[in-house]
What does this fold into?
Amino acid sequence: NDVIGETQLPLAKFCKRAWWRYRKQIKKGAPSPESQVRFPNKASEKKWIKLYHPSVKDRNGDPKMQGELEVEFVVMHKVVSDLVPAAAERELPNANPFLPEPDRFKFSFLHPLDALLELMGPDLLRKVCAVICIVLCLAMIGITAPMVAANVVTKIL
It folds into this structure.
């Protein structure tokens, strides 16, 4: 288990936005928090967060992005959170937020290049295929070179 990357999540902006929404609702004479159970995701935010590994740097010495993670923040009143059940992981009830099954890697002997693409990524797969092509070309040259040399020698004699 190796660290892919790390980042800091600026939650102050999300909390401040939820606080102002809540205050606006209070000023408008909004209904009680219990009545908001039907719409608990009004203050939700989905965002892609970039992950950086502390020891991986690019040529300029800046941290190199190692991946991205999509996170969803749902900020709601305590009363609403008590009324809206949320289970751990994908256990029942799988709601608030709904967590779909992950799209995991599936190996297949019928599609080996797809498996290699998943394992190595497109850049490394392209390099490996280029090396394999070069090795095959050199092998073909190595196999045909003695025949060509023998033909040349027999024509000269």
In short: The chain has four helices and two strands. The two ends are 68 Å apart (CA to CA).
